[in-house]
Write a structure and sequence with these properties.
By secondary structure, this protein is α/β, with parallel strands linked by helices. It has three domains: 155 residues, FAD/NAD(P)-binding domain (3-Layer(bba) Sandwich), CATH 3.50.50; 105 residues, Guanine Nucleotide Dissociation Inhibitor, domain 1; 98 residues, Alpha-Beta Complex (Polyamine Oxidase, Chain A, domain 2). Helix content is 34%, strand content 22%. Strand 1, helix 2 and strand 2 form a beta-alpha-beta unit. Helix 2 runs parallel beside helix 15.
């Protein structure tokens, strides 16, 4: 009897050790248990927003995030002396659906500037010190140029309205076959200066050359600037506060960090998601009724889907292009502020139209060191992201650009900190593609129980990330 009892105990211990090695409960129940109603891959704005909307609808959601932080490109860097600057997303446009969440959570917002910014054209600064976009335009465009600009802008408003028509008017749909640059030059009637103004203001939005995006997408982008433009909003204390607040609202226990999703399997009854814990390289299977892939476009190629993605979805992923961003935080002596003030007023942000990108002003205490945030885009960002140049070479390139723009600025620079992004971090649609074509529509449709969210499904901005979250949640809630 004693020996039999001892063998039973040994067997139970052996089963416990085996179950532990498999990361399963002793009774093996985990293999049948559902992790949540919905699994969300990615804790960026689209993933966090989707989880928030699902929770409001009474559904459970678990987010699997590959990195050790939440928010995706929503990141705020802090420095000694209570200084801070954005690493990624600089502003939320006023039509961003994410602002509804931010306001529901009582997160304070501020707006310090308009959609247009000060800019350099042919080495001359045109400072924005005006009360409106139109007053700013009138400060550097003559009467004839303004008349042509207003006529063109009115046309852009009408074309943007037509973008909501299904199907798109044939003449409008055909504009995906021509670049935004060529279309502007051949049809706008704008002066050379006005054309360059349009280019300089819009290229940082899609983070590439206007020669590389379709005219159809250029029309969609211009909506941010048309008329008096949309107001850019910023979270008081840093945009990262918004991501943190949403994470708190949905419950930190529902967000699993360092989980690299490698497989998504969809069946008639549910989904299985395999993820590798990047700390201990343990593989786990999570189960739910549905899954939302809320990751950047380029990350979709890291996941093995069962069944495989449809041919049109694969083609959509492979043929969509991406813009490039690179961020540099520049800490300077406080006296350097004289370079970006005009009549005792800051004229930042400034579109430098060069390797400095968009020059934003970070937050710092009065009388302390100042901090600038350079949002470099396009070819310059691609070069800096490539890691071909050593950090001191990038620093020298930026210092030379600063010195050319602001003679005497170099000695006041104390430190630069660089933040890199994937080469296809920003969604854009090349000539021959558009966010309105059949391939893009395929990505906005679920494949079985798999839904796709993210800015690349809608547009180039965080607007698209937030809008996509609403779309996929509404789709899931409609399912029986």
């Amino acid at each position: 009897m004693t020996q039999h009892f001892f063998r039973i105990i040994q067997r139970l211990i052996w089963l416990a050790v085996l179950a532990s090695s498999l990361c399963l409960p002793v009774n093996g129940a985990y293999a049948q248990d559902q992790t949540a109603d919905v699994l969300i891959v990615g804790a960026g704005l689209s993933g966090l927003s989707a989880a928030y909307h699902l929770q409001k609808a009474g559904k459970t959601a678990v987010i699997l995030e590959m990195s050790p932080h939440i928010g995706g490109r929503i990141r705020t860097a802090s420095y000694p002396g209570d200084s801070q600057a954005e690493i990624g997303l600089e502003e939320f446009w006023e039509n961003n659906p994410a602002l509804e969440i931010i306001r529901e959570l009582n997160i304070p917002l501020e707006s310090a500037y308009t959609s247009f910014s000060s800019f350099y054209y042919q080495d001359k600064l045109y400072p924005f010190t005006h009360d409106s976009n139109l007053e700013f335009l009138e400060s550097f465009l003559d009467g004839g140029e303004m008349k042509a600009y207003k006529k063109w802008d009115k046309k852009m408003v009408e074309l943007h309205r037509q973008l909501a028509e299904v199907p798109l008017p044939e003449q409008l749909a055909a504009l995906k076959e021509v670049s935004f640059a060529d279309w502007i030059k051949s049809t706008s009637g704008l002066s050379a200066k006005a054309q360059e103004f349009v280019r300089i203001q819009t290229e940082p939005e899609y983070a590439t050359s206007w020669h590389k995006i379709s005219a159809l997408d250029g029309i969609a982008e211009w909506h941010l600037f048309s008329g008096e433009g949309l107001a850019p909003m910023h979270v008081v204390g840093g945009n990262q506060r918004a991501a943190e607040a949403i994470a708190d609202a949905i419950g930190r226990q529902n967000i699993r960090l360092n989980q690299l999703v490698t497989h998504i399997k969809s069946t008639d009854t549910g989904v299985e998601v395999t993820a590798t814990d990047q700390a201990g390289f343990q593989n786990r299977v999570f189960r739910a009724q549905y899954v939302i892939a809320a990751i950047p476009l380029f990350r979709l190629n890291d996941i093995q889907f069962t069944p495989e993605l449809s041919a049109d979805r694969k083609q959509a992923i492979q043929t969509q292009s991406g813009g490039a961003y690179f961020t540099a935080h520049v800490i300077t002596d406080g006296k350097a502020s004289r370079f970006w003030t005009h009549e005792d007023e800051s004229v930042l942000p400034i579109m430098s139209d060069g390797p400095l990108g968009v020059i934003y002003e970070g937050k710092s205490e009065a009388g302390q060191d100042a901090i600038l945030n350079l949002l470099v885009c396009g070819t310059h960002a691609e070069r800096f992201n490539a890691r071909v140049n050593a950090p001191d070479e990038i620093r020298e390139s930026l210092l030379a650009a600063f010195e050319k723009q602001w003679p005497g600025f170099r000695p006041l620079v104390k430190q630069m900190t660089f933040y890199r992004y994937h080469p296809r971090a920003i969604a854009s649609w090349p000539v021959g593609r558009s966010r309105f074509d059949s391939l893009s529509k395929a990505l906005r449709q679920p494949q079985g129980r798999v839904y796709f969210a993210g800015d690349f499904t809608e547009d180039t901005h965080s607007n698209g990330a937030a809008s996509s979250a609403i779309r996929v949640v509404e789709g899931i809630l409609q399912q029986k």
